[in-house]
Amino acid sequence: MIDPRRLRVLRALADHGTVTAAASALHLTPSAVSQQLAALESEAGHPLLLRKGRRVSLTPAGELLVAHAHVVAAELERAQATLDALTSGTAGRVAVAAFASAITQVVAPALATLKERSIELSVRDAEGHESVRLLLDGEIDVAITEEHRSTDRFTTFPLYTEPFDVVLPPDHPLGGGPVELAALADEDWVVTLPGNPLRDVVEMACAQAGFAPRIRHTSDDFRAIEALVAARGGVALAPRNAVGGVRMAAVRQVVAGVAPLRRVVAAVRRGSEDHPLIRVVIDELCTAHL
């Protein structure tokens, strides 16, 4: 019989790629993780791991077991939600991670209303891709993030959509009106770091305009991105609400034609969407931006 507690260890390994990283996410020692994985392989009766130096990959049997582990985890989340609903758990604390402008747009407006309903939010500033990792690691309950690639591990709720604007240095010759992205093909670019889904949006928009951006500077902080542009370090694309209430020397212009979009969602672990506390928080976040 497979011990379901060990499936959590296997999922962490699949998410993080090394025993050390999985141990850190689970707050265990690497030795404990290795022991749990060895025991799971024995229980499963199949080799689950291929070791290549410090990194570990999954065998076909391991991939299959991880898929079942996701289903088991969702059912456990759903069972907890059902039990909490049975006891009318409508007061307590919910941990939320969101990037800075989403905190301004939806989280902060919801904070006071939820407090009146005896629900305390614990808010953590994190970029969208980082908040998804925190969600899957069980460190938070709700992640405010960009629309993510399809996954069966969480449920999403649309919050709002915003276009990207072109960000130009002061006195740039294209600063007088809507900007065709193709006109920026020969510019240096300031973009987010690899792994940030917003970088994928920018690179795809540039590809559709017929060029690959010549990346000169990188940052996940849009205040830093706009400061670098203002210092004539390059041009950028930035979500319209990414830097609110901050005056920069950089010039923002709308994109000519169809602008790339950031679709912002609230994500929860699949199975937890009916938890009474989380349900109330999601409903309030969805109405906060209206």
From TrEMBL:
Residues 2-59 form the HTH lysR-type domain. One of its GO terms (molecular function) is DNA binding. Keywords: DNA-binding, Transcription, Transcription regulation. CDD domains: PBP2_LTTR_like_6. InterPro entries: LysR_HTH_N (IPR000847), LysR_subst-bd (IPR005119), WH-like_DNA-bd_sf (IPR036388), WH_DNA-bd_sf (IPR036390). It comes from the Bacteria. PANTHER family: LYSR SUBSTRATE-BINDING, TRANSCRIPTIONAL DUAL REGULATOR HCAR-RELATED. Belongs to the LysR transcriptional regulatory family. This is DNA-binding transcriptional LysR family regulator. It comes from Lentzea atacamensis. The lineage of its organism: Bacteria, Bacillati, Actinomycetota, Actinomycetes, Pseudonocardiales.
